[in-house]
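Posting for a labmate who doesn't have an account.
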Amino acid sequence: MNGKNGDKRGEIAADLRRQLGSEATQRFLRAMPAFRLETDMPKHFRELLDRLDRADAKPAGGERR
């Protein structure tokens, strides 16, 4: 892969991040049922999500279990 192709991919990635993070896109996605936040999640799922959050917060490079 040459330098120009790599530059183009970087530009495309940056454009996608910018567009997906825009308020207009977020507002549009929130209006779609598939992307709506669930407010009444079962306790078991909430506990699993909390475990994931704690695992993500740990520093990288630790040993695997």
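Reply:
Got it, the structure tokens are right above this. The two ends are 38 Å apart (CA to CA).
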